[in-house]
Every structure is written in structure tokens, then in C-alpha cells.
């Protein structure tokens, strides 16, 4: 046991920093968040009124509405301020969704979503991910999405 105590005494406590309120496009935070909770999709539709095909690109980020821990007053902490900041950066609306679990019929889940579906929001993402690249296999999804 003395060896363990020796090791533990050498560990420095983690310094808790305040909330980072710097602009999203000034750091790689959104890349990490995207690696964890976002996806890129390509939808191909045949137009009903012509023989042409429509290709639509989407970036979708979805998070649950509340954090799993309570604040110091015992209230649920909302993720809305974070997702709203991302929505404003992309120039898109924040959507709210509820769904019932197929396995547990009485359990409902609530989430916030931002979807980059227009050219302006997608160009912001391209500029951002060119500066702060994705680090997971999602990078390959992004590259596929990028070259459509």
C-alpha cells in the first residue's frame, strides 16, 4: 500500500476552468462534439414532376435536452444554450423533438437538434472543418459528404 500512496500523492488535482464562451469558430470544440454526436447524410430523391434527381446534403447534431446531473439548486441543466450557440453560428434553427423508446414504451426522450441543410450553413461547416478537422472515422463521412 505505501507504493500506491506514493503514486497518489504525486497526482496533481485537476484544475476546473470556467465555461469557455469564446466564439465556436475560434477553437476545435465543435469538431470534438461532432465526432461524438453528429452525422452527415446524403439524400437522393427522384423528382416526381420530372426525370431529374435531387441530391440533398445534411449535417445533423442532436443532443438530449437536459444534462444528467442537477445544478447546485437541484434543477436540471439544459443543453439549450450550447445548441442555440451552434445554431446561431450555422444560421439555422434549433429543433426540439420527443420520442418514446421502442423497448420501454413508457420512457420518453427529449432532444435538441440543429440541421445544416442550406448552402450558407454548409459553407460555414466546410470552412470550420478545414480549420479544425474531425479526428474520428466521421472524417471519412464528412469527406464523402463534401465531394457530392
Distance N to C terminus: 60 Å
User: Tell me, what's the shape?
Assistant: extended
Q: Spell the H/E element sequence.
A: HHEEEEHEEHH
**Order of strands, widest sheet:** 1-2-6-5
What is the CATH T-level topology?
Endonuclease I-creI
Structural class: alpha+beta
**Biggest sheet details:** 4 strands, antiparallel
The amount of helix comes to 25-40%
- Tally of separate domains: 1
CATH architecture: Roll
Question: Using DSSP, what is the number of strands?
Answer: 6
The CATH H-level superfamily is Homing endonucleases
CATH first level: Alpha Beta
Report the sheet-strand fraction.
Answer: 25-35%
Mean pLDDT, to the nearest integer, reads 88
Low-confidence stretches: none
Rounded radius of gyration (Å): 20 Å
The helix tally amounts to: 5
Q: What is the topological layout?
A:
Elements: H1 2-10, H2 29-37, E1 38-46, E2 53-64, E3 66-70, E4 76-78, H3 80-90, E5 94-100, E6 108-116, H4 119-131, H5 138-146
Antiparallel strand pairs: 1-2, 2-6, 3-4, 5-6
